[in-house]
Amino acid sequence: MDSVSVNKFRDNLKSFVEQIVTEHSPLKVTRRSGEDFVVVSADDWDREQETLFVLQNKSLMKQIAASLETHTKKGGYKPTQEEMDEITGI
């Protein structure tokens, strides 16, 4: 994660925001007081919150584990040639 001082962040706010949004990379902003903060795009924040929700939901994690086990044992779903043609648009 890149890091900049709060003064540099303030002076170049527009370019830093554009970088954060387009590159989907958070930016750590440091302060002399030692209380740093991180700036992330709203899309990235939402994605992180969804991931945390899934990881903290025991019931959902059990369903994912059961699905993975079924997928591994049965070799996963394999579409028919007709389904593949429909998917690829052929």
Structure overview:
There is one protein chain. This protein is an alpha+beta fold and 90 residues long. The protein folds into 2 domains: 39 residues, 3-Layer(aba) Sandwich (YefM-like fold), CATH 3.40.1620.10; 34 residues, no CATH class. Strands 1-2-3 form a 3-stranded mixed sheet. β2 and β3 form a beta hairpin. The chain is elongated.
Q: Ends: how far apart? A: 43 Å
Radius of gyration: 22 Å
CATH superfamily of the largest domain: YefM-like domain
**Residue fraction in strands:** 5-15%
Tell me the total number of β-strands. 3
How does the major sheet shape up?
3 strands, mixed
Unreliable segments of 5+ consecutive residues: none
Identify the overall geometry.
Answer: elongated
Order of helices and strands: EHHEEHHH
Please give the count of helices.
Answer: 5
What's the overall average pLDDT, rounded?
A: 92
Percent helix range: 55-70%
What is the domain tally?
2
Give the spatial strand order of the biggest sheet. 1-2-3
Quick structural overview:
63% of the residues lie in helices and 12% in strands. The chain has helices at 6-11, 13-23, 42-56, 58-74, 81-88; strands spanning 2-5, 27-30, 37-39.
Topology, element by element:
Layout: E1 2-5, H1 6-11, H2 13-23, E2 27-30, E3 37-39, H3 42-56, H4 58-74, H5 81-88
Parallel strand pairs: 1-2
Antiparallel strand pairs: 2-3
Keywords:
90 residues, alpha+beta, 2 domains, three-stranded mixed β-sheet
